[in-house]
Design a protein that fits this description.
The protein is mainly beta. It has 4 helices and 96 strands.
Length: about 1200
């Protein structure tokens, strides 16, 4: 639920608020104060709600238990709740929060108190410094008191080994009584849970990772899928997200497994968390403050330092740490003369000083506090002479050598880095021309602003004189431009190129002339080039490119050849002197090559930049395979993660959990080259879960978990199907069989074959070791065969006997099949094939063809190789895996009970393989990077591409596999995404990825926003907060839940049948103040919600709004008496004070002015008179002058001045208004 006052957070405790009741809200929230030491601070707040809410005050650091220091009361006259803090000191500087609570919800807001220290004598400062040195550790925040019911729920789900610790922490001394009560409570809880839940198991208590993520969960099978699952902290209900795992509190559901996640854990997140289904508690766990990793108030920041100078890295922690470790790349740094390490006495400020930096000090520096880390780059600026230009980031400049062109045309003599253009020749003439800078084939010279430029031409005869022109005007030597003649060479030299020097230059001598043009390019600071911008995932990235050049300059940012546009995370800003790219909450997909294109009338300049985003790796690719399972050991296997987070995987951590126990045990860690693991820490007939995590320099990935694995005794394979007789000859019988369906506890290593004479009971082994061949049979006998599979556990059950078969000569062979046609198919360069088609041979009743066999040999090999293991029943066959540009021989034979028939041969020659074409997405104007789809419509996106061989096409949504309702169709060089009926949850970033077998990869991402025409706003309320104005507030439209670009428009009319006129547009809050009111008139107001698709229905006021006309005053004539001259010049009694407010709020500036006669008051902003500006409201009540800024915006920031004048003189006071962004908007 959203408040009408910016900066107020409302939490609703119930799903539906009864009619006539409401959750608490603030009518006026407390404002931040800046006061001097010794003063009293007063915070005031006005609240509303039915029933009337209770109000309490807290502060972020420390308590408010001292009644002599903190006084809270309610002023019934002004209807205000007041907090007064007496005799302010520096320790009172903090963030104070105000809570309004009733039975239906809670409203909260905060206000800051800043203390300006006055004059303190030297002794007092010395004592304060001494106390800081003695304070080694800040006191831990006091845990919130828990009620007894919460403690018993915590004990109910805790491990038995933690009973004693919990009892000591919460003062339970009767241990036996506790156990007895737990038994009774467990029975009652199971009966309550049985009405809603089929089963519940595998509780996982809270664990906090190094990157500040806390997770806990359970496995739960609900009887009703629509049952509501709630998450509470210290008895207060929390809101959690299910589709976004990067929110503060979120739920990830995998089947019956519920995993709750708390991101960016802070000390205030410590407490008791409870999961409830409807009103029944099912799981409780506690987040200990000591398990929360140390956070950074001010992390390390990138820096550059000249060679031989000192570089200093500084960071500030949120909680003390005295044993942090510094690293350079992967090497641990020790305190030395080179590396000086210091820690402040309170353990919060850490500093690393690198003395006399050298190029080898370049690289990333990291501070590790044990549970968290921060890193930054150091760039050492190398010394360079005048002949070579380097960027400070280490990228080499392009240095050209002076040279001369041919006898005709232009020749460049670059002395600066070129911008990528090649030196060329101009039109033929009797002159030779040269220049300093960078030229192209059209005689264009591009020069960076501020650099020197030189145009020269060489005549073929001595004594030739000529004239220089610019844009048709004759030139002479002036300041900064020099015309020279050195023998045959005529030169025009510009010492320092400015915008006025751009244009077309011409040198003429008689009837012969030559031309060249100079373009002035925007200059770029080389410090921004070179080493890539590096960020961690989740951090904000800002890249600022300053430039100079002739205005106007158009700036564009490109990534993957697509121009970047503003969206929810990416913003591009541009001024006359710089352009800036801002990315909030950077992700891995943001990494890559960026290009900044600057363009003006003088030319185009492109700058290539690189952004590197590091993150922990993705989980290893699954599923986890069970290679072998026995009573003594289990072997598992996994695949490396698809994304290593930008840094190579260093190792894998393997953990195990016994089913039914809530304890993961670390089994070991293996290097990145090993993706299998065998453990003997198992018990027979016990089931386990295994999970694997990947580790890189940035942290540990989420876990890949296996299915339930049981450590059972080794199992032998099952029985194969009865063998089939393939062929029989005088001394050899060929049989075949299928592998058994059950392979046992390990893979099959071979088969044992047995034979017996028909009519006997004794089976004799054909082979003593597993094999697939058998010989040495007696002619004329009839045999039966059976087969048994063999694995590591032993020999499995034998199959049923085969059909009996005679060993005899093949007397009735089939006529060889005659191929009716041959078709050669080229698949790709490494996968060519030949398809054969033949006719069935002529047969009679005595000869029945059982199948066919195909054999093949290459032109340089005389041995035939069988292509099929089993007889082919069809009359067509495709031979694959052939090499291009080779000649092959193939033959086909028919088979029956007597053996193979005669072969029919054919020769085939394969052509050259098609060239390899790396995958490339053909993105043009028809492919949009941002789509707005109306809910219920179809999402259909076609992405054309080219590649050979066909690539693997993968689609992702927000980095995850597509939902089930999405359909992908890829054929004929086009891949299509199709979603039949779009829903709001289909909004997000979609990515298509192409990859071939050589590892070449191409990706493209676009955003889809599913929206709809917004719903109408809620009821309108009108209030007169400032005299002669009306403040219009309304309940937000329900569409704000799914529409991020929603805004409001306010309209008014002055009579019941008048025309509606817009008085406010593009309003992103639920509040608008209208000032142009005329007393005595009736006003009606209307509010509509708008987005990209249209306008909602209106919400209107029913009763008119009217400001009563002031009553006329009686006029009288006063008698003037001559008296003493009391005239006094204006003077400032109380000056203006600087203000800092948030966007959308109201700002009140006031001062006190004296003088006689009463001076005229005039307000100015940045020297602009505000008297006739309706957006500002000015008052003067008996010398107290006030200026009210309604709904402040960023443009209201600046210097304000109040001026008082009368006949005796003038006085003024100035103050600065600072506007800060509001994160709640």
């Amino acid at each position: 639920m959203k408040s009408s006052v910016p900066g107020v957070l409302i939490t609703q405790f119930v799903d539906e608020v009864p009619e006539g009741c409401s959750t608490p809200d603030f009518e006026r929230k407390p404002v931040s104060l800046t006061l001097e030491e010794g003063k009293n601070a007063i915070f005031r707040a006005m609240v509303k709600g039915v029933p009337t809410p209770d109000v309490k005050w807290t502060r972020a650091q420390g308590g408010m238990d001292d009644p002599a220091k903190y006084e809270t009361f309610f002023n019934s006259v002004t209807n205000e709740f007041v907090l007064q803090i007496k005799k302010l000191t520096a320790k009172d500087s903090d963030l104070y929060r105000c809570f309004a609570v009733n039975e239906y919800g809670e409203a909260s807001c905060s206000a800051g108190l800043r203390i300006i220290q006055g004059r303190i004598d030297k002794l007092r400062r010395t004592l304060e410094d001494s106390r800081k040195r003695l304070r080694k550790r800040a006191p831990a925040p006091k845990p919130k008191p828990l009620d007894k019911e919460a403690v018993w729920q915590l004990l109910l789900h805790a491990d038995k080994r933690d009973y004693e610790k919990i009892c000591m922490k919460y003062g339970i001394v009767d241990f036996r009584g506790m156990l007895k009560k737990l038994q009774e409570l467990r029975k009652d809880t199971e009966s309550e849970q049985g009405e809603l839940i089929h089963s519940i198991k595998n509780f996982r208590h809270i664990k906090v990772t190094r990157d500040g993520k806390a997770t806990f969960g359970l496995e739960m099978d609900l009887k009703n899928r629509n049952s509501k699952v709630y998450l509470l902290k210290d008895g207060e209900r929390l809101r959690y997200e299910t589709s976004n795992e990067y929110g503060k509190h979120c739920l990830r559901r995998i089947g019956k497994r519920y995993i709750f996640i708390v991101n960016d854990v802070q000390p205030e997140d410590a407490g008791l968390y409870q999961v409830r289904v409807e009103d029944v508690p099912v799981f409780s766990t506690e987040l200990d403050p000591d398990s929360i990793p140390v956070g950074f108030e001010q992390p390390l920041s990138n820096m550059s330092c000249p060679e031989d100078k000192d570089a200093i890295f500084t960071c500030i922690l949120r909680t003390p740490c005295h044993d942090a470790v510094w690293l350079h790349k992967t090497h641990v740094l020790e305190a030395s003369e080179k590396h000086q390490i210091s820690v402040s006495p309170d353990g919060l400020t850490h500093q690393l000083t690198i003395k006399n930096t050298v190029p080898s000090d370049n690289g990333m520096y990291t501070i590790n506090t044990g549970l968290s880390s921060s890193n930054a780059w150091l760039i050492v600026e190398c010394k360079c002479d005048g002949k070579e230009l380097r960027s400070v980031h280490g990228k080499e400049g392009v240095v050209g050598a002076d040279g001369r062109g041919g006898e005709y045309g232009l020749d460049s003599q670059p002395s600066k880095p070129s911008t990528g253009r090649e030196t060329g020749k101009g039109t033929a003439s009797d002159f030779r021309s040269g220049n300093k800078g960078s030229s192209d084939d059209r005689g264009l010279l591009s020069v960076l602003k501020g650099e020197p430029a030189e145009l020269s031409c060489t005549v073929s005869k001595d004594g030739v004189t000529g004239t220089w022109f610019k844009d048709g005007l004759k030139l002479t030597s002036t300041e900064g431009v020099c015309l020279k003649k050195e023998g045959l060479v005529h030169k025009l030299i510009i010492d320092k190129v400015e915008d006025i020097h751009a244009g077309k230059y011409r040198f003429e001598s008689g009837d012969i002339k030559t031309e060249a043009s100079i373009f002035v390019e925007a200059s770029i600071n080389p410090e921004i080039l070179g080493v890539p911008t590096v960020a961690k995932a989740g951090q904000n990235v800002t890249i600022k490119i300053p430039f100079e050049g002739r205005l106007p300059i158009r700036a564009a940012w490109l990534k993957d050849k697509m121009e970047l546009a503003d969206d929810t995370r990416i913003r591009v800003d541009k001024t006359d002197t710089f352009t800036k790219l801002s990315i909030s909450s950077s992700e891995r997909k943001d990494a890559g090559d960026y290009k900044v294109r600057l363009k003006n009338d003088s030319g185009v300049l492109e700058i290539n930049l690189k952004l590197v985003v590091f993150d922990k790796p993705q989980p290893p690719a699954g599923p986890i395979k069970i290679v072998e399972s026995s009573a003594n050991d289990i072997t598992i296997q996994w695949k490396p993660p698809k994304d290593d987070g930008g840094k190579p995987v260093q190792s894998y951590i393997i953990e195990r959990e016994q089913v039914g126990k809530n304890e993961w045990v670390t089994l070991g860690e293996v290097p990145r080259s090993c993706t299998t693991f065998t453990t003997n820490k198992v018990e027979q007939d016990t089931s386990y879960y295994f999970r694997v995590r990947a580790v890189n320099a940035e942290g540990t990935s989420d876990a890949l978990e296996s299915e339930e694995v049981k450590a059972a005794s080794k199992a032998t394979p099952g029985a194969p199907d009865p063998p089939e007789i393939v062929s029989a000859s005088r001394d050899t019988i060929t049989i075949s069989w299928k592998a058994p369906q059950k392979s046992g506890s390990s893979r099959i290593v071979g088969y044992l074959v047995q034979k017996r004479k028909k009519g006997t009971m004794t089976w004799l082994p054909v082979n003593s070791v597993p094999t697939l061949e058998m010989t040495n049979l007696k002619k004329g006998l009839q045999y039966e065969f059976r087969v048994a599979a063999v694995n590591a556990a032993g020999t499995g059950d034998a199959s049923e006997p085969s059909q009996p078969v005679f060993t005899r000569d093949s007397t009735s062979k089939c006529t060889a099949p005659r191929p009716s046609g041959l078709e050669l198919v080229h698949l790709n360069v490494d996968c060519s094939s030949i398809t054969l088609t033949w006719k069935r041979p002529a047969t009679n009743d005595e000869i029945d063809v059982k199948g066919y066999e195909v054999e093949m040999r290459s032109s340089n090999n005389l041995n035939w190789t069988k292509c099929n293991a089993l007889p082919i029943e069809m009359t067509t066959y495709t031979v694959k895996g052939l090499r291009a540009k080779q000649i092959y021989f193939l033959r086909v034979r028919a088979l029956n009970d007597s053996g193979p028939g005669e072969a029919a041969e054919i020769e085939a020659s394969l052509g050259a393989a098609p060239p390899v074409v790396p995958p490339r997405l053909l993105i043009d104007d028809t492919v949009k990077s941002f789509l707005v789809i109306k809910a219920g419509n179809t999402i259909r996106v076609n992405i054309p591409f080219e590649a050979s061989p066909d690539p693997v096409v993968t689609w992702l949504k927000d980095g995850h596999p597509l939902p089930n309702q999405a359909t992908i169709n890829t054929k004929d060089g086009t891949t299509q995404l199709l979603i039949g009926a779009a829903e709001f949850t289909d909004s997000g970033t979609y990515t298509v990825e192409l990859q071939n077998g050589l590892g070449k990869r191409e990706t493209f991402s676009f955003q889809v926003q599913v929206t709809d025409i917004p719903q109408s706003p809620g009821p309108i309320q009108l209030q007169e907060n400032v005299p002669n104005t009306v403040t219009v507030t309304w309940e937000p439209s329900a569409s704000e839940k799914w529409e991020s670009n929603l805004y409001y428009t306010v309209l008014k009319r002055e009579s019941q049948k008048g025309l509606w006129r817009v008085v406010g547009d593009l309003i992103y809050t639920n509040k608008f103040t209208f000032t142009s009111l005329i007393p005595g008139r009736d006003y009606y107001f209307r509010v509509v919600a708008k987005n990209n698709l249209g306008t909602s229905g209106p919400s209107e006021t029913v009763q008119p709004w009217r400001i009563q006309k002031p009553k006329g005053k009686s006029a009288f004539t006063s008698v003037c008496y001559k008296g003493v001259n009391q005239n006094q010049p204006p003077r400032i009694l109380v000056p203006l004070k600087p203000h800092v407010v948030t966007t959308g709020s109201e700002c009140h500036m006031s001062c006190a002015i004296g003088g006689h006669p009463p001076p005229k008051i005039t307000w100015y902003k940045d020297s602009r008179d505000l008297s006739n500006d309706p957006t500002y409201f000015c008052t003067n009540d008996f010398g107290v002058c006030s200026l009210v800024v309604l709904g402040v915006m960023k443009q209201d920031e600046g210097e304000y001045m109040v001026e008082a004048t009368n006949g005796s003189g003038r006085a003024f006071s100035k103050a600065f208004l600072t506007i800060k962004g509001n994160n709640n908007l």
